[in-house]
Amino acid sequence: MSYSKNSNWSQPGTSHRPNSKAIKPKNGYVLIADIGSPTSRILHRDRTYAQQIKECLIAFIQQKIFINNAIDDVAVILSGSDKTQNSLDYKNIQVLKNMEKVSWETAKLVNETVQTKNCEGDWMDALGVALDLIHRKVKAGNVYSSIQIIFFTAFESPFKTSERTQKAYISALLAEHTSLFIVGSNINQEILENEEKMSKGELTACQLIREANGGIYSFGDFSADVVNCTEQPKIGSPFNVTLDIGSKIQIPISAYIKTKKSDSLKWSEEISTGEALVDKERTYQKEQSNAIIDKQDVLTAFKYGSRIIPITVEDEKQWSYKSGNKCLSVLAFVDPIPPQFGSGTGTRFIFSHRKSGVVDRNSQIALSALINAMAETGKVALVRYVYANNCRMALGVLSPRIKFKYECLVFHELPFADDWRQYEFPPIITPKSQPSHEQMEAIDQLIDKLDLTNDEAFDSTKMSDPYEEYVRHVIGFKVLNPEDPLPEIPPHIKMYLQPSPSLMEGAKDVLERIRQLFPLQTTGKLKINDFEASKREAIPATAEEMEREIQNKKSRLDVGGDVDLGFILGMNSVDKVGTTNPVKDFSLLLQSGKKSVEEIYDEMSKVILELLEDSGGTNAPLMVKAKNCIEAYREHSVAEGRVAYFNRWMKQFKEQVISNYFTDFWQKYLTESLGLITKDECPSSDVDKHQAETFLRLPKQQQVNEIDSVDEDEELLNLID
Amino acid sequence: MEDRDALEEESYDAYDGRDAIIFLIDASVPMFKKPPVDDIDAAQTENDCPFVLAIKCAYNTLCSKIFTDPNDSVAIVLFGTKKTAPNDKYGVYTNTFLLQDLQNPDCEPITQLDDMLNKDGGMDEYMYAESNPQSISLADSLWLCSSIFSKHKSKTDKKQIFLFTNNDEPHSKFSTKQKQAERRIGDLQDGGVSIFLFPIGEEFNTTKVYQELLVSNDKGGILPGSMTTDELLLKICRKCQKKRTFATLGFNLDSNTKFGVRLYNLIRPAAQPKRVPLDKRTNEPVKSVTTKFNAETAETLLPSELIKCTTVCDEKIRLDKNDLASLKSKFPSGFTLLGFIPIGKLKLHFYLSPASFIYPDEDLVKGSRMIFGALVHRCKARGFAPLCVLKITAAMKPRIVALLPHEEHDPNQAPLFGFHVIILPFRNDVRKFNYSELVESTTVLNDERKFLTSKVGYTPSDYLDPALRTKWNTLEGMALGRENIESVEDLVMPDLDAIDDRLGQRSTTFNDLVFPLGYQSPYVPSASKAKDPKNEAAVEEAAKNGWVCIVTNT
């Protein structure tokens, strides 16, 4: 193998191509997965070695899809495959995917193919194939800013090597600036220090890495590295202007965005049934008649009380505020401004002017003088800020920032009077209401126990945005498993949003003390709040509340569904009490007055029986439905004074219940109060309380659980007496 | 005692969609006395009698409410007048004159007050103040107020009375009239009306009568004595701002300990005057309707026929709308404590978006006030900030926030006790800089640093937004048919002359030192009209950043 050492490999930015903007530096990756028969061994949690490799491969490919604009090239080679497929014709080595722009197809292929095969592959052969692959790609004119071979193997299959081969490999690795990484081997720190413990394969690999470049990873370390699918954005184009102090001092500067909320993935709308795109059109209609008005006849206006002021675009341009030319002009030097007064969408760092990569020295000296003077006097500058000629004007602040590596001015916007609300929040700790000494002490202890001063874990600027990570996780999951339900939040993302368990464990006693010292009682208000502001309220934190929330939502949904359906299907035109929604039909019919009340009552009683028969005396939901019907029927009868009619039916009904062995239903649902209508409830009744009680009791021989029921009945009677 | 404090808080915090405000203005003789002119300077700017001051306040309130809260209602009642206008709606009250009935801010009331203030003799009609102080009855005017409120259609409004007077003793302490007034105030407060006293004049002695009248109740209060319109306006402005809770949330210290907080947004861009589409031919308002249809077949689509999709690396991923929405709600809402961090260690120079503010909510969890108070107090004393995970609403992502404790004791400021919620950026919100490309090693300039001159500190109330105010002024002028529309003073304009003066020779010295003779600035400002591609790119970037240009179609 001969490798021409031409200098196609180059540093990003110094490319020989005329327009460096068009070509972004891409990286090349060759993934080699050992899927030979030894990989069937179980690692942990019932996963085989091969499965673990598969997960790593997919995670890696997914990451490359989401970062660096998916321009990186990825190749996948399987060692120990049952197929032989490579240009060097090495046995059991399969090039699953040639070195091409990373794609979901690669991930899908890996998902389908990678599993233990009943073969064994020579890992040195596989490495040779990889090097050959890289060589061909580079020769074909591909420019990589870095190339990595990532080899997943435990060196458990036999292999052949010689000093000559190793030398050739090393020079090949060096020639293309390729690094070699070994993942998932048994090599750890201890073994590294003691070469005698190494297997032959491990030793050879270590030699290669030492001579060329690379490293050794465990599966865990590797996963942690590739799990993040969001990246830190790079520097954007600057806002160039002069920083003016009065009319005489003008320092040319370049302001770069330093922080700004990252963009989420964009979601567009599509038609659920097909792939067709959705178009939107805005039309104007008359308030009452919905008649469409031609767009040209529409004018915008402002409301001033009851008066409407029509205004044309030209007019508005004429009188609206003119912010003037773009500028960054000092208004005054003031004391530092508290952080809560930040406004706008982010922070800019201001450096001296830089044109086509060259920093203007003079302006840097001027800016540096200003930065240092501000830092020394402890002042910040209020500025007028206009981004582009006649664009929105903002009030801003420049604060000096001096670091070892750089110095700059930090810019962010400030609110105007109109943007600031001065609500009153009266003090809580007053001479009248003061926490006890113990309470204060407990809080102090909590601060001490949960002190993050030396804990870097919760530096947000080192964390990936958990939601954005999760969305990408879901997308990756959906591509590979389109039919499965959405995955839960994976632990590595959840971790960002939870206090460190060891810290919490250490603070357990203090937290317990606080719980005792500060009596806290949750009210039912949370629920009500949810209801009122259902759109704004997110789901509650604890599992229990989550459950309740789901229940809430369900019931809300049910109610809403009913109304909508009723509306759409024109439920008002109900003409009969049906079994689907009998109570509603019943009341609608009674309201409509289409039929006589007796007729509706009869329909209802039929439905009740029907439901009971369908339930077979065991189906609880149907029985509940029947019970609700009886309730509604009874309620209406009481309200309307149609006692005799109902009581007559009730007696009939009881007979039917007994003869059809629906005694369970009777005992479960009716014995409380759904019997005959009594005198107390409606004066026109001739049934007294005692009679009603007796009526509710079933004849003894029919009772299923005789003794219990008797007891219950007696208890009931006792209560009444 | 704690209960009472809680109650007080309740009255402040009750959610208010709309306000109904009565300006109850004393129009008795002392209100028309001009303040003594001791100071010539003061005389020139503020030479209004207290009555005019009060009317100005009402006028300004109406002028801003018509834009900010067009659905609020305002009434103006004068008392101590000789003139009593019999009114069919409310009946007759002695020495009380209903200047404006309770109504939404509109042109007529504003014009009426404008005429009173700016026309010659505009005030004369109301100058017939009752000369016999004995016949004036505060109770009667309060009675009228309660009738006005009881006849007001919208019952859910937050009802307030702003009482303006410079008479600290309308009735002697134990008089019958005082008793009557006391009773009326009690009735009003029972009916949910808050009464705020705006005493005019430094001499006003609140201990004489009013303290007992107003402070002994939960609702309302006395504001510190004021003299100038600006002072009064600032106070009214603060009172009129609607304390809107953005969210009520649980604050989890751990899984067992949880208290309730309310979250407020103190800094958010002011609302712009609303545009309404209009039919050009008839000037009737029209509604705008957006319809979605299939781009291929032009069929109109129902929301249920739509699905969300995104393309990642040439692969289309389609998700049900509800599924997509549910992704965010998989993260629990509220605050979760992570730990405490010294304020100095926070990267506060990485500002990301406006801060919020939290205050305890007893309604959610009883006992929240005490633990919250202790937390703020101890954090403040020790210079620590709680670090939390926060998710505010279902549609928002979880964020890491730092809570800055705040205890305000300055009587001139609105009281502020609680935590500022500062959103901290994630890794993907921070751009990566290669500083070596941005900064060259420099020779530091040693002298000439003393040219910095400092002014006062910054407070937002010093800077009105000139763009918004221009819009307001112009619309007001157009609506009221004014001939001359006053231009707005741009307070965010550097006073070049003053700065040049202050710098004097030093600016030349500075320039000589850093910019050698013949130095050509690398930055060339682009002319506004020229079709400069660079400028266009800048505009595009501005649009990307959500900074909408005021002027379009250049």
From TrEMBL, chain B:
Matching InterPro entries: DNA_bd_Ku70/Ku80, Ku70, Ku70_bridge/pillars_dom_sf, KU70_core_dom, Ku_C, Ku_N, SPOC-like_C_dom_sf, vWFA_dom_sf
Any one biological process term the GO annotation gives: double-strand break repair via nonhomologous end joining
Ku domain residues: 298-441
Record carries keyword Nucleus: yes
Keyword set, alphabetical order: ATP-binding, DNA damage, DNA recombination, DNA repair, DNA-binding, Helicase, Hydrolase, Nucleotide-binding, Nucleus
A cellular component annotation (GO) from this entry: Ku70:Ku80 complex
Family according to the record: Belongs to the ku70 family.
Catalytic activity of the protein: ATP + H2O = ADP + phosphate + H(+)
Compartments, as annotated in UniProt: Nucleus
Highest taxon listed in the record's lineage: Eukaryota
One Pfam family hit: Ku_C
Keyword hit for Transmembrane: no
Entry EC number(s): 3.6.4.12
Chief place where the protein resides: nucleus
Protein name per its UniProtKB record: DNA helicase
GO MF entries: ATP binding; damaged DNA binding; DNA helicase activity; hydrolase activity; telomeric DNA binding
